[in-house]
Design a protein that fits this description.
Elements (H helix, E strand, L loop, with lengths): L1 H6 L6 E4 L5 H8 L1 H5 L2 H12 L6 E2 L16 H7 L11 E2 L2 H7 L13 E6 L8 H9 L3 E6 L11 H20 L2
Parallel strand pairs: 1-4, 4-5
Antiparallel strand pairs: 2-3
Helix pairs in contact: 2-6
Protein name: Serine aminopeptidase S33 family
InterPro entries: AB_hydrolase_fold
Length: 181
C-alpha cells in the first residue's frame, strides 16, 4: 500500500497494517544461510521460465529450518490462524519470486507519499524489523503510527483486530470527510 500511495498523489488517505516495507530486511532477518539455500531453486526456476517449462515452486511459509520463504518461528501457525476453517491455502510461490522480494523496497518511496498515512505497527513483530516502521514514518510527511502490543499474526485476532479496525475507520473517516468538497 505504501508503494501505491507513493504512485498516486490523488489519494485522500492510506492505511498499512503489519507492513513489509523492505524485502531485503525480511531476507536479512532470515539470514544469509537461508538465502543461499534458495540459489538452486531460483536458478532452476529462471531457466525453466526462459525455456517456457512449468515453473519451480517452493513453499511460501514453513516451520523453522524448512525451505520456505518465510520460516520464522510461529509463522506457519500464524498464517494458518488467519485462514478460514476448511480453506486450503496453496502454500507455494515461484522460486524466482525471491529475487523480487530481495529487491522490494517500498520504504525508499515513503518520502513521496503526500496523503495522510496510518501505519498500524505490531510492537512484537516477529517477521520483519519494526525499526523500519519508524524510518518510514519519519520519511512520510503525514504519517501517523499506532502501536499494538501484538505480533504479525495476533493483530488479526481479538482483542487486537477490533481496535485496529476501529482505529482505521476513525482515521479514514477523519481524512476522507475532510477531503470531500
Amino acid at each position: 500500500m505504501l508503494a501505491a500511495a507513493a504512485r498516486h498523489p490523488e489519494l485522500a488517505a492510506a492505511v498499512v497494517q503489519c507492513p513489509v516495507f523492505s524485502g531485503r530486511a525480511v531476507v536479512a532477518k532470515a539470514g544469509v544461510r537461508h538465502l543461499v539455500r534458495f540459489t538452486v531453486p531460483i536458478a532452476s526456476d529462471l531457466v525453466r521460465s526462459a525455456l517456457r517449462l512449468p515453473r519451480r515452486y517452493v513453499p511460501l511459509v514453513g516451520r523453522p529450518g524448512e525451505l520456505a520463504f518465510v520460516n520464522q518461528p510461529e509463522a506457519l501457525e500464524g498464517w494458518q490462524s488467519v485462514t478460514p476453517p476448511g480453506y486450503r491455502f496453496d502454500n507455494r510461490i515461484t522460486a524466482a519470486s525471491g529475487l523480487g522480494m530481495l529487491f522490494y523496497n517500498a520504504a525508499a518511496q515513503a518520502g513521496r507519499v503526500r496523503c495522510p498515512l496510518l501505519i498500524c505497527a505490531s510492537d512484537r513483530e516477529n517477521l520483519i524489523d519494526p525499526a523500519i516502521v519508524t524510518k518510514v514514518a519519519g520519511a512520510a510527511p503525514k504519517a501517523v503510527v499506532v502501536h499494538y502490543d501484538a505480533d504479525h499474526f495476533t493483530i488479526y485476532h481479538p482483542p487486537f483486530v477490533e481496535q485496529v479496525v476501529a482505529d482505521q475507520v476513525d482515521f479514514l473517516r477523519t481524512h476522507l470527510q475532510s477531503a470531500t468538497p
